[in-house]
Amino acid sequence: xxxxxxxxLITGGNSGIGRALAEALAAQGAKLxxxxxxxTSLKATLDANPGMESYELDVSSPDAVKRFxxxxxxxxxxxxxxxxxxxxxxxxxxxxxxxxxxxxERTIATNLLGPIRLTTALxxxxxxxxxxxxxxxxxxxxxxPRADTPTYGATKAAIHSWSQSLRHELRDTSISxxxxxxxxVATDLTPGQSANPRAMPLAxxxxxxxxxxxxxxxxxxxxxxxxxxxxxxxxxxNFEAIFGMINPA
Length: 249
Ligand SMILES: NC(=O)c1ccc[n+]([C@@H]2O[C@H](COP(=O)([O-])OP(=O)(O)OC[C@H]3O[C@@H](n4cnc5c(N)ncnc54)[C@H](OP(=O)(O)O)[C@@H]3O)[C@@H](O)[C@H]2O)c1
Description:
Layout: E1 7-11, H1 16-27, E2 31-36, H2 39-48, E3 53-56, H3 62-75, E4 81-84, H4 101-127, E5 132-137, H5 150-169, E6 175-180, H6 202-213, E7 221-222, H7 228-231, H8 233-236, H9 239-246
Parallel strand pairs: 1-2, 1-4, 2-3, 4-5, 5-6, 6-7
The chain binds NADP nicotinamide-adenine-dinucleotide phosphate.
NADP nicotinamide-adenine-dinucleotide phosphate (NAP) binds at residues 11-12, 14-18, 36-38, 41, 57-60, 85-89, 110, 137, 139, 182, 184-185, 187-189.
């Protein structure tokens, strides 16, 4: 898939990985449509990037996703790629006296049902294109979880599995299914994360990920070097050791 000639929709394109990815792909020549919930950061992203288009969209709302898919495909008939980047990561205390299930439910609605619902709504349009892509964003934590964010890890493992199935089911169509599995990256996904010295600098991550995405033959999984130990942990027999590093006793 030649992303430099594509019209690409990125959910959560108003901050962090989504915004940086949108800017890098726009710099290569792609047409970018971004969505997010926060009108202020959407406007700031558009002001800094003339030529991008934006829509307010809460990906956890089934009705909003359906309405948005109709609007965006009418207004942008060239749309041929979607990057399901919007996501939340919130710490859950499973030992709390009163466990707040709202976190688990919001995480599943955003990280898992969001991509499933938006893909379903966009699929007839994408299938009409001669070349198209559905890009999911999982995580290194899909392969070795962080125990204090159990639902987050579960949604990312589910996105990995869902991407594998979707890729197989769409094998005879014009649509490629690509999964980006980032390692820990310096963004505001969780409080203090952008200043975490163990996090991969955002610009470094984007540069390596975009060069993988731009390869003559796009890989089905976009894996920067930093995420390889997590991605291959089961296969290499290092799962317990890496689990222990991520989750100190
Ligand atoms: N940073 C990492 O270490 C890391 C590692 C692995 C995977 N990832 C994944 O990368 C993706 C981007 O995360 P990030 O690190 O760039 O964090 P971020 O800066 O917090 O960005 C998250 C984005 O998702 C959007 N979003 C969240 N809930 C939404 C909803 N209900 N509807 C629409 N948009 C919503 C946010 O937009 P609003 O602010 O407008 O809500 C924001 O643009 C996520 O899927 C995350 O799980 C990140």
